[in-house]
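S1.2 Input.
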Amino acid sequence: MRKLLLIILIAILILVAYEWLTFPNVAPLAKEMPKTTAFMDIRREQLRDEGKDATLSYQPVAYARISPYLRRAVLVAEDNDFYEHTGVDVKAMTEALQRDLARKRMTQGGSTITQQLAKNLYLSPSRNPLRKVKEYFIARSLENHLTKKRILELYLNVVEMGERVYGAEAASQFYFHKPASALTPNEAALLAGCLPNPRAMVPGAPNKRLRARQRMILSRLRRWGYLAEEVVEHAPPPKDVAPPPPAVETTDTTPTETTDTSATTTTTTEPPTTTTTEPPTTTTQSPSPP
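S1.3 Output.
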């Protein structure tokens, strides 16, 4: 019995040591855009396995070059309490866990924007509990090293917004043939609405579910979208920044300043033609940001 317990203890220590040594160093993200992400790499591998072209559309741009309508739309759609939590919404996670226990299956509920960014950058879509634990610690590390504004900027640049389409700039060019800075409220709400499942709710061919989410997001934007944007502009830098954990150097990340210079991967797929018949877009509470 003692021998078995010793083996288990050694195994746990080895696992902890491995996780510590391979824990990502998020500090460089304060000034650099990622060249790729774990989710992008996984998708490329899937496409190759299917014998398809593995080209993805990914064009990271600076925060100022993303429409304020899209910035607000993502906040109201994905994480109402983004500026209230420290990377993890404990209440939302608890409620999601209770639902999972009732349904006897794991879901993706309860994730903040910071957690989603952690998952996209370094992890996988796996629903196993160990992945969720890693997500938690990486999210806390992101919050310790980056401002809220920078976390939102990174998320908007790497999140999947359709088949082979990643980030606001690539999605805007692909679906609407314009830069992300020029998105209208309707277009922004459509892109934000697709985020829970961008391959099922495609902005280029919106289904009923996506149209319903678009209307919901527009309604929220009218009510309090400007307040969310105001908080973004005045978000303070993180306090008590901890030293970065040890990390393993990789060849996937090439330093790219968050200015107008951006790494671009062009897709060869022709963008679908969209015909929008959205609800009125005029709002009285969402003036252009400074």
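S1.4 Remarks. Residues 208-233 form the longest helix (26 residues).
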